[in-house]
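Weekly structure sync - notes
Attendees: PM, LS, DV (DV joined late)
Agenda: review two folding runs queued last week.

Item 1: First target. Sequence and structure tokens pasted below for the record.
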Amino acid sequence: MSFVATAVKQERLEQLIAAHAPLVIAYSGGVDSTYLLAIAAKSVGDRCLGVIADSPSLPREALSNAVALARDIGAKLEIIETREMDNPSYAANPPNRCYFCKVELFATLELLAGTRGFAAIAYGENADDARHVRPGRRAAAEFRVLAPLKEVGLTKSEIRSLSHGMNLPTAHAPAQPCLSSRIPYGTPVTPAALAMVERAEMIVRGFGFRVFRVRHVMAGDRCRARIEILPEEMPRLAAVKEAILLAVRQVGYEDVWIDPRGYGAFRS
């Protein structure tokens, strides 16, 4: 895709946002929603509101970074509390767990939009997402949530390129799904488990690793952590492996090991 064609898509995006303003944008601080919020702030200013959902599945560092980033791009932002953890269908951690999370999010945003006079709600689904299983897409359809990036045909790589042109720090940021994604389907999602994952990932990040996951695995009554690190980063592991294993055990994991296949075998 040429630069000109991509720029045309961005122009169409600006027009689409303006046509639906005033609008609420579901914002997470990730690549797609940050770009969408930045374009909305540029296009319609105070006629858009970014809203970030806070719950135990969102790391504290991610929340503070997202809030700071919204401020830096000049976007209005509010934090709302969502209670998906109270829904047994979510907490049971089925394969469509994300559907129940998005239902909670969009229901909360719908109430906010209705009481505050916003005409629409939008979120950051892009044109590539149609090729992947996205349970949240069903919730978006049920609540008639707009997907402007997808509608104008912007792919993830184009969004990264355009974000780079706007000097957005998310342009080259790795994907960072919620903490619940670290828990295998069928293993209940609890605040305690999410807190353990968050502390363990802070430890691994503190050793300088950038792309990785700490998987929370239950084996009977034993709580285990499987650490997956991007293969390109694994050569640095030898010098710090034992220190990482010891530190993560202190979080409360009885067994900790580093998957030799690296991050990617279980991409999420």
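Item 2: Second target, run right after the first with the same settings.
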Amino acid sequence: MAVVEIPYKPRDLQRTVHDSLQRWNVIVCHRRFGKTVFAINELIKSAVMCKLLMPRLAYLCPTYKQAKTVAWDYLKLYSQVIPGTSTNEAELRIDYPNGARIQLFGCDNPDALRGIYLDGVVLDEYSQMPQNLFPEVIRPALSDREGWAVFIGTPKGRNAFYELYTKAQNNVNWFTAMYRASETGIVNENELKDAQEIMSQDEYAQEYECSWSAAIKGAIYAKEVEAARKQKRHCFVPIEPMLQVHTFWDLGISDATSIWFAQATGKEIRLINYYENTGEGMAHYINYVKDYCRDNNLRMGIHYAPHDIEVRELTTGKSRKESAREMGLQFQTVKLHKVSDGIEAVRRIFSRCWFDQEATAFGFDCLSLYRREYDEKRKVFRDNPLHDYTSHCSDAFRTMAMAWSDRLVEGTRPQGTVLVNKFNPMARRN
């Protein structure tokens, strides 16, 4: 048997994590901890030692470009000493002599992950990934061979990563760990002091001290989201059958279509549901809306969409608005507006919004993470928002804000209806 020595000498804490891993793992760590090097070497070890036929392992980043930039060179470096490996630059994958394969993926193309099986996966910077990616795509891929998963990264607010870490701490089937720079000693004290002088308090707390509550750098609705949390408007919101439910859309073709469901009474805007999906036709979303209203005994109100719903398709000669009408959903078009005007409209109505903590969890996380692009060369934030998985949800929310701004939506309490304990946590959904 040939002995192959990989040029990786783990730090003490990295070795501790390697030795402590279970099937499910959440690791929160500060910048420069060495999480990518750790993750790549764990994948390589699992690939070459797996006893199953044709092992398949994956490393995921929020974007494909990020995966290539962050991890590809490491994967090639630590794999090249293994005789018989082959490298595929185009697909960012390495095949090993035992039939194993490690491939890099980005969450900006989730369809590339559908239909595959996995023996192990690392989700790097999970706080920046779509919340539905793991349960809908990755978890089924791990089922056949009982594969493992490592969620790893730095906090980006109290989003799905925070919830996962919190729940995992109380589960004996999960390994959890948090490593702060002030405790690990990996980054020397002088460097940490220098970072504190240059970075804002929130930036330093988030990046080096793993703070869940620090404001997200460049977050567009940071103040509004924080106010909603403090005022407990992110809570249980009961569905009121006497109120109509309005929907507000962002239409995708090659990317996500997003829908917010809202009930209006007086000045209150109650967000009772959020839904998005990719790769589906208009009929799928229309059926979802109809089924949701039927299952919850709700009366449909008005459906609002951005101006592109009126663009005619070359194949049919019809607009999606006309096609939707034929399928039983009548849309009202929200006029074209500047993104900056839509953002201001969102800020104006945010204090009136109540978000159901369960049904709109993913949507609320997207709003909290929606942020401006950062110009690395000039070290400033650009005016335009970053286009990532949070964009579709936030665009649909802008549709809602502009509809209210243009007085297209009226929220009135039905005559004779009295709402008592409207946010009673003991209430039940229909």
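Discussion on item 2: Residues 412-422, 424-430 have pLDDT under 50 and may be disordered.
Action: LS to circulate a short write-up before next sync.
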